[in-house]
Amino acid sequence: MENQTILYMLVLSGLSDLPSLQLPLFLVFLLVYLMTLTGNLLIVLLIYTDSHLQTPMYFFLGTLACLDMGYSSVITPRMLFDFHTQKMLISIQACITQIYFFLFFIISELVLLSVMSFDRYFAICRPLHYTQIMHWKACVLLILGVLIFSMLYPLVHVLLLLKLTFCISTPLQSFFCDLPQLLLVSCSDTFINLLLILITAIFLGGGIFTLTFCPYIIILNTIMKMSKAMRSKAFSTCSSHLTVVFTVYGISFFSYFHPNAKDHSAVDKVPSVFYTVLTPLVNPLIYSLRNEKIKISLKKALCKLNIMRGKYVFE
What we know:
The protein is an all-alpha fold. The protein has a single domain (about 10-315), classed as Rhopdopsin 7-helix transmembrane proteins, CATH 1.20.1070. Helices cover about 75% and strands about 0% of the residues. The protein contains ten helices and two strands, in the order E-H-H-E-H-H-H-H-H-H-H-H. The protein has a two-stranded antiparallel sheet with strand order 1-2. It starts with 8 loop residues before the first strand and ends with a helix. It is a multi-pass membrane protein.
């Protein structure tokens, strides 16, 4: 340890080391980021302004949109900054901070998707008791519980990271500060850190995954006993949520568990791009394209906007 130089700055490998690609990548991801913010903010505004959307289901959807905006803002602005400066440098403190908020938003989103599964369970399997169970106080308490849990979980990882010393000058083979990649450049004993990642991946990840999909076993069994018209309506209320769930879990599992996940070549970084940058953009598109109430509310909002423009021009 005495002959090792302690690092205070880290190097990110980025998506590409070709200077000619930095500007095109900057423009592409800037467009994606603006579309992500616009799409999610639009959903939040529609839910806030349309009384027909002020139900527990859309309250959770609005919360998901807010998390997606935060999730995207943890990764993309830093990526855009690196494309612009082409330095790919980040301090240890900034790296750990990015890891904390990245874990906070991803855990919040996964737990919220689990809560939304139970919301669909109560709405379809226990419709007569739905308003008594999923009242506004319960919804707010659930969201507070999700946020508090998601704040505490990454704090454990951060406290362990602060005890490590970083002295290996190898660049992080990623375009953002990923926890497993950061541990690779530490010259301290990272056994406890790796053990915590393994335990939480098995128990916490497995628990959230189970709580997300188990309600749908009962939901599908209930739906199959319904009439054709009610079955179609029930499927439509679940399809958007299930599509988002499969998208989030599918891309995340492929990002971290595909055969070449440790190589992190340019091709292997593509799943990470989908996982960190494109998923927050896809979620509002899924809900807006597959949800009739969202589409109706959007049409009403556009009609009102056109009427206001017409009055303004006429005046």
